[in-house]
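Table S2 (continued). Query chain:
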Amino acid sequence: MQSGTFPILYELRNATTEAMQLVPILERARTASDLTFSADVRPSLKQQRSFNAQLKVHLVQILAKYAAGFGDYAKSSKLQHHPHRQMPAGYITKQYPLKVNTVDESSIEGQPKVLDNVYIEQMKMTHEDLNDSARPLFGDQHTNARVRGAKALRLEDINNFTKLKVWQLGFGLFHLCLNLIWALLHVHRGSISQFGSLSHWFVVLDKARLGSQHPDYHTLLAALTQILHGIILNAWRDECGHPSLASFAESNPTPEQLLNIAQEILLKHTVPMEEVDPADDNSDDDLEAADESATPPPNPNNDILRQNIVLLTHDLVYVIELIHAISDGDWGRIEDILGNLAMMFRGAGSNNYCAEILHFIHNLKKVWTPDFA
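Corresponding output:
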């Protein structure tokens, strides 16, 4: 069997000669400061509010999809996602497929040969044509790591093209989604006997072919989506204030009321409770000092099932927002959650994709000129 690389060139929508100049970008990279968590990684208040607003719409859309009597709400103008930086309606990125080449690109030495094949051999360009302009290169994390390795080996080469400095790296969104759900599977898989774990839900839903470390993307995404939708629908039953969703629908709630209830669901069903330290000897004293009529705060250690489900729901809402933002072509919504995604990858032990996102945030905020970014 002979494997190969199938390169595709994409036309940049707003590219100009001035925006693509390499020298200003390299100068900013040389003088750029490091990222700080509070200013660069942690989402701003505006980004947090935007993400929260998108999640409320997701929750209402789930209700409208499954509960009878709520179908018309899905079309309400007040219950749609708020565009942040969306592609123009009807815009289609132009693509230019090139010849497959059989260069082994799975190594630091092979990756530059693939780029040479594309631009020098197939497109008949010269180093002079390529030396002064920056070019985005979006790939999976493994490809980006190989390009960075080749850059390190070629620091003393003859020009910016052979040094690979012209390539400005970004991650492919499909691979981001793929590795995100694999990471969450690793975190929440658990065992069949652990209620609230993914293994438990897979058995309940009779899901197959999900036992491997890296199952099929579409199969896993469909299972996670179904699990999330079921959890959210049950949360609507708990929080709607009616005996059933049918009677809730008959009350004709306004879009504003639905959004308010969606906010309550987010607070109660997606925000994990802080675990109580069993070694804290002051907890009993605090309860004795409290008013006897007051209800003590819930102890998450006493309800592991609920805590597991809340933790799972918290992570899965990021998946649905990322998937829908990509589908809607709204890069602003993706950028709103990049910092949190980096933290999720780090918490799951996926250090490579955490670092990949941090590299990208650093370029967006400190290296690339605004017109280029």
